[in-house]
Design a protein that fits this description.
The chain has a single domain (23-125), classed as Collagenase (Catalytic Domain). Helices cover 34% and strands 19% of the residues. The chain has helices spanning 35-45, 50-67, 99-116; strands at 24-33, 76-86, 121-125. Mean pLDDT is 77; it is low at 1-10.
Protein backbone atom coordinates (compact mmCIF):
# COMPACT_ATOMS: atom_id res chain seq x y z
CA UNK A 1 0.00 0.00 0.00
CA UNK A 2 1.04 3.57 -0.61
CA UNK A 3 1.20 6.14 2.18
CA UNK A 4 -1.88 8.33 2.35
CA UNK A 5 -1.38 11.81 1.05
CA UNK A 6 -4.91 13.10 1.43
CA UNK A 7 -6.62 14.31 4.59
CA UNK A 8 -8.89 11.29 4.98
CA UNK A 9 -9.12 9.70 8.39
CA UNK A 10 -8.18 6.01 8.86
CA UNK A 11 -11.90 5.10 8.97
CA UNK A 12 -12.36 6.59 5.50
CA UNK A 13 -9.70 4.46 3.80
CA UNK A 14 -8.36 0.92 3.89
CA UNK A 15 -4.75 1.89 3.28
CA UNK A 16 -2.00 1.79 5.85
CA UNK A 17 -1.18 5.07 7.47
CA UNK A 18 2.45 6.13 7.69
CA UNK A 19 3.55 8.68 10.21
CA UNK A 20 6.66 10.78 10.02
CA UNK A 21 8.12 11.48 13.42
CA UNK A 22 8.21 15.17 14.21
CA UNK A 23 11.81 16.10 15.00
CA UNK A 24 11.18 19.65 16.11
CA UNK A 25 8.85 20.60 18.96
CA UNK A 26 8.06 24.19 19.95
CA UNK A 27 6.42 24.74 23.33
CA UNK A 28 4.83 28.18 23.82
CA UNK A 29 5.13 29.39 27.43
CA UNK A 30 3.83 32.32 29.45
CA UNK A 31 5.44 32.87 32.85
CA UNK A 32 3.44 34.45 35.67
CA UNK A 33 5.11 35.96 38.73
CA UNK A 34 2.80 36.52 41.68
CA UNK A 35 2.76 39.61 43.89
CA UNK A 36 4.71 37.91 46.70
CA UNK A 37 7.54 37.06 44.30
CA UNK A 38 7.61 40.48 42.63
CA UNK A 39 8.23 42.03 46.05
CA UNK A 40 11.23 39.72 46.52
CA UNK A 41 12.78 39.96 43.04
CA UNK A 42 14.24 43.49 43.24
CA UNK A 43 16.47 42.31 46.10
CA UNK A 44 17.42 39.10 44.29
CA UNK A 45 18.16 40.67 40.89
CA UNK A 46 19.32 43.98 42.38
CA UNK A 47 17.01 45.83 40.02
CA UNK A 48 13.47 47.16 39.98
CA UNK A 49 13.56 47.11 36.18
CA UNK A 50 10.90 44.71 34.88
CA UNK A 51 12.77 44.18 31.61
CA UNK A 52 15.79 42.92 33.54
CA UNK A 53 13.55 40.54 35.49
CA UNK A 54 11.99 39.31 32.22
CA UNK A 55 15.46 38.78 30.76
CA UNK A 56 16.44 36.68 33.78
CA UNK A 57 13.39 34.47 33.32
CA UNK A 58 14.18 34.10 29.61
CA UNK A 59 17.61 32.86 30.69
CA UNK A 60 16.01 30.39 33.10
CA UNK A 61 13.84 29.04 30.28
CA UNK A 62 16.92 28.73 28.05
CA UNK A 63 18.60 26.68 30.79
CA UNK A 64 15.56 24.40 30.91
CA UNK A 65 15.73 24.07 27.14
CA UNK A 66 19.34 22.91 27.48
CA UNK A 67 18.12 20.01 29.63
CA UNK A 68 16.16 18.73 26.63
CA UNK A 69 19.21 18.69 24.34
CA UNK A 70 19.83 14.97 24.49
CA UNK A 71 20.71 12.82 21.48
CA UNK A 72 18.57 10.03 22.92
CA UNK A 73 15.44 12.17 22.48
CA UNK A 74 15.94 12.29 18.70
CA UNK A 75 14.08 15.59 18.79
CA UNK A 76 14.77 19.26 19.19
CA UNK A 77 12.70 20.88 21.92
CA UNK A 78 12.44 24.65 21.92
CA UNK A 79 10.56 26.81 24.42
CA UNK A 80 9.14 30.05 23.06
CA UNK A 81 8.60 32.59 25.81
CA UNK A 82 5.46 34.49 24.90
CA UNK A 83 5.52 36.81 27.90
CA UNK A 84 6.49 37.28 31.54
CA UNK A 85 3.54 38.74 33.43
CA UNK A 86 3.56 40.31 36.85
CA UNK A 87 0.38 39.38 38.70
CA UNK A 88 -1.28 41.62 41.25
CA UNK A 89 -3.99 40.77 43.72
CA UNK A 90 -7.11 40.50 41.67
CA UNK A 91 -10.56 39.03 41.61
CA UNK A 92 -9.55 36.77 38.71
CA UNK A 93 -8.04 34.12 40.98
CA UNK A 94 -7.29 33.57 44.65
CA UNK A 95 -3.69 33.93 45.85
CA UNK A 96 -3.58 31.71 48.91
CA UNK A 97 -0.84 29.91 50.84
CA UNK A 98 -2.95 26.75 50.65
CA UNK A 99 -1.40 25.24 47.53
CA UNK A 100 -4.56 23.36 46.53
CA UNK A 101 -6.72 26.50 46.58
CA UNK A 102 -4.03 28.58 44.88
CA UNK A 103 -3.29 26.17 42.03
CA UNK A 104 -6.95 25.27 41.44
CA UNK A 105 -7.85 28.94 41.22
CA UNK A 106 -4.85 29.75 38.98
CA UNK A 107 -5.50 26.81 36.65
CA UNK A 108 -9.18 27.66 36.35
CA UNK A 109 -8.31 31.28 35.50
CA UNK A 110 -5.77 30.18 32.89
CA UNK A 111 -8.18 27.65 31.42
CA UNK A 112 -10.75 30.39 30.89
CA UNK A 113 -8.14 32.69 29.30
CA UNK A 114 -6.87 29.99 26.95
CA UNK A 115 -10.30 29.24 25.53
CA UNK A 116 -10.41 32.84 24.32
CA UNK A 117 -6.89 32.94 22.88
CA UNK A 118 -4.25 30.74 21.34
CA UNK A 119 -3.16 27.79 23.46
CA UNK A 120 0.08 27.91 25.53
CA UNK A 121 1.68 26.49 28.68
CA UNK A 122 1.50 28.54 31.87
CA UNK A 123 4.20 28.53 34.52
CA UNK A 124 3.47 30.14 37.88
CA UNK A 125 6.36 31.31 40.05
CA UNK A 126 5.38 32.27 43.57
CA UNK A 127 7.01 33.92 46.53
CA UNK A 128 4.49 32.42 48.95
CA UNK A 129 5.40 29.74 51.46
CA UNK A 130 2.85 27.21 50.26
CA UNK A 131 1.39 24.39 52.31
CA UNK A 132 -0.86 21.43 51.65
CA UNK A 133 -3.63 20.08 53.84
CA UNK A 134 -3.58 16.30 53.98
CA UNK A 135 -6.55 14.00 54.41
CA UNK A 136 -6.76 14.64 58.15
CA UNK A 137 -6.64 18.43 57.65
CA UNK A 138 -2.99 18.50 58.70
CA UNK A 139 -0.32 20.65 57.09
Amino acid sequence: HKPRTNNATPKETNTFEYFIKQNYITIPVTVHLDKALTRYLPREFKSRNREKVKKNFRNILNNVEDLFRRPSLNQTVQFTLLDVKFLKNSTKFVMDENVSKYLNSYCQWQGEKKTKKKWYYSILFTGLDLFYYGRNNTK
